[in-house]
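Notebook entry, structure prediction.
Reason for the run: the old model in the group folder had no record of what sequence produced it. Starting over properly, with the input documented here first.
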Amino acid sequence: MKERRNMNVVGPQVRKFRMQRGWSQPNMVTKCQIKGWDVSRESLAKIESRLRSVTDIEILKLGKILEVHHSALFPDSKGV
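New structure, fully documented this time:
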C-alpha cells in the first residue's frame, strides 16, 4: 500500500513554532492535554510530517497552544 503524503499544509509551521519555543514533541503534547486536547506524540509527529490531516478545530487549538493566530499556521500563499 502506498503511503499517503501531504495530508495537511500546516504541519511544517506547527513544527517551526514548536521548535522556536524550545518545546519537544512530548512537551507540546503535555501542553495540548492541559488545554483539553487529547493528542498523542505520534499524532503530533504525523501532523508535523504531513501524514495526518488536521481538522479546522484542531487548527484553532494549535494556534491557541502555540500562541499564534491560526492564520500563521498556513504557508505563505506565494509558496503554494
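Summary: Residues 27 and 77 are 30 Å apart (CA to CA).
The old model has been moved to the deprecated folder.
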